[in-house]
Amino acid sequence: MKPEDVAAWYFRLNGFFTITNFVLHPSRRGPQRTEADIVGIRFPHRAEFPDGPGGDDPEFARCRDKPYFVIAESTISPCKLNGPWTDPGKENIHAVLGDLGVFAAALIPSVAEHLYKEGVCDGEGCFCSLFCVGQSSSPEIKSRYPRVSQKTWDEVLAFIYDRFRTYRDRKVDHKQWDDNAKQLWECWERGWNNRENFNASVRRLSGLALNG
Fold first, then answer.
1. Which phi and psi angles does 42 have, rounded to 5°?
2. Residue 53 has what pLDDT?
């Protein structure tokens, strides 16, 4: 299990349909342009947990009337946004929006411009955002892109722990999950009464640095 696999399951448990290691291929023969750790989309009327607490991260409640699309980068260091997603000259955001069909072609230049300038675009029919997961938040990103969400690994792991604990009875039958999710569950089962034990187990398993 790699760090981006942990991040991908954070998004999946929040209702996102995800693609990991999404590769942008060139329009003509040549090397790939870049890749995104995770791209994903969440639909606005999700209601997996209508009967009580344990719902999704409040981060995603800010978009209630349209899909929420993310281009997410994960790192074992402090949060960062890689150059391919912040350099308008490369037009990689144009490419990923076009490849996945998030917007009509005529809207892509305007949406991409907002994402390059602000990191988010509350566009026609879809909310789009760059997204960071890392060991700690980045003051540089906070200054340049104040609306871009930054999640620390502690926050991500706390969310997964709480989701498994709150909805154990619903999630215990999960034979269709991939190996990464099954390993997360095994870490939770071993430390189900201790969030710190779960955090440390997942960090060791995925290569994330241990706290302290």
1. -125, 135
2. 55
